[in-house]
Specification:
- The chain is an alpha/beta fold.
- Helix content is 12%, strand content 28%.
- It is built from 4 helices and 12 strands; from the N terminus they run ββαββββαββαβαβββ.
- Strand 9, helix 4 and strand 10 form a beta-alpha-beta unit.
- The longest helix is centred in the middle third of the chain and has 9 residues.
- It is globular, with a radius of gyration of 17 Å.
- It starts with a strand and ends with a strand.
């Protein structure tokens, strides 16, 4: 068994969605003063590699703490979209390349390669986003969720968030800011994306891993 970490490390000064405050990590207790270490961690619920709940954009949406833990684990496939350029769209042709195998998955993760721009201004730029047809496929095929190695499922300048609404109203979850998808390959694997469990969570930072047999 091989485990690949798909999670960015939370740290001060890390990339966050524009308008969001970056996390703060303060030493609450120290060895010198208290004999042990403890950190006061202050951050928004959509910091770093994180999961969006339906409640993120919908007043009637379910929160992450209301899902069973099995919602966050399942068979997955990485769809390679790394040939796309800035501002391009992930269309249904990328799904069709995996016909046969993709039907057996519960999560579809899109590898754009954009995580290589983490910690740079370009990370906030015109990254590839999924098309409405792709979203409709994911919904109609009863997937548990969708993951991407970019900061949002749709263009960063989007104000009405139509793709979030479309996907989340159907109780899929969205995992954003994944990394290391290039280490997985094209075979099925077990995906685990376990969000921090707190009450009424509209989203939560998530430790995501791929488990390869």
């Amino acid at each position: 068994m091989k485990v690949i970490d798909l999670t960015h490390t939370i740290k001060e000064g890390m990339p966050v969605f524009p308008g969001t405050e970056p996390p703060k990590l303060d030493a609450a207790s120290t060895f010198e003063k208290d004999g042990f270490r403890e950190t006061l961690l202050t951050m928004y619920s959509h910091t770093g590699t994180h999961m969006d709940a339906p409640a993120h954009v919908r007043e009637d949406g379910i929160t992450l703490d209301k899902f069973g833990a099995d919602k966050f684990v399942g068979k997955a496939i990485v769809v390679d979209c790394s040939d796309l350029s800035e501002g391009d769209t992930i269309d249904i042709s990328y799904i069709n390349k995996y016909k046969g195998i993709i039907e057996d998955t519960e999560f579809v993760l899109f590898k754009t390669g954009w995580d290589r721009y983490w910690d740079t201004e370009k990370y906030y730029g015109k990254f590839p986003v999924i098309s409405e047809e792709v979203a409709d496929y994911l919904i109609s095929s009863n997937k548990k969720g969708i993951g991407l190695d970019v900061i949002s499922i749709e263009a960063i300048e989007s104000e009405d968030l139509p793709m979030h609404h479309k996907v989340l109203k159907n109780n899929l979850v969205i995992i954003e800011n994944l990394c290391n998808l290039d280490q997985i390959g094209s075979d099925l694997f077990t995906f685990c994306a376990l969000p921090l469990k707190f009450i009424n969570s509209d989203g939560a930072s998530t430790r995501a891993v791929a488990i390869l047999d």
